[in-house]
Amino acid sequence: MTDEITGQVGFHDDYAENFEDVAANIFAPIYPVISQQIINRCQIMSGTFIDVGSGPASLAIALSKFVDGKVYAMDFSEKMLAIAKKKIESRDLNANVTPIFGDIHDMPFDDCFADLVVSRGSLFFWQNVPQAFREIYRVLKPGGMAYIGGGFGTAELKSKITQAMEKRDPTWPQCVEKRLNKTNLDSFKKALHVAEIDHYRIIDDESGFWICFNKVD
Q: In the chain, what is the straight-line distance between the N-terminal and C-terminal CA atoms, in Å?
């Protein structure tokens, strides 16, 4: 698979520093914007939150500033979690954000644990999308919500980031657009059906591509 930020094939611990460099220096402006959009659309501002495939915890940290509660930054890379831990500590956010090792296909949380599960970018690299959706649904509390997908928040931010990333890798814009082609989007709808999640909505606008669903009471 190709990593969403770095454009490198496969994701291994060796890429963690490069991933964090790009996330911190190019992608940084999108995380507060996306966090605000999540809050506006989901209307969940307190409780327990999980950022799936959190990488260096950029979204988890941004989200923690908008909500009242604990945010778990879950990733399957130990090295990435170490970077996340340093970022969280440097911002004195240990009480708000907790890095945790975990796989989206077998999440280390009890049933009915979280009020909101979010993820930006990891959806496109899940090995078993229906199973991942089942796991998210399992850990949600009744009435909880999921906000899963990818995007840059606004068309202006997307344009600026695309220009910056194209200087690093001329093929990067094509990789991003390929992930959002119609065939890919249709496959996510099929995965939701296989996971028996029937009540969902898809947002496909300048904020990005997002799948939102509630856990039915």
A: 36
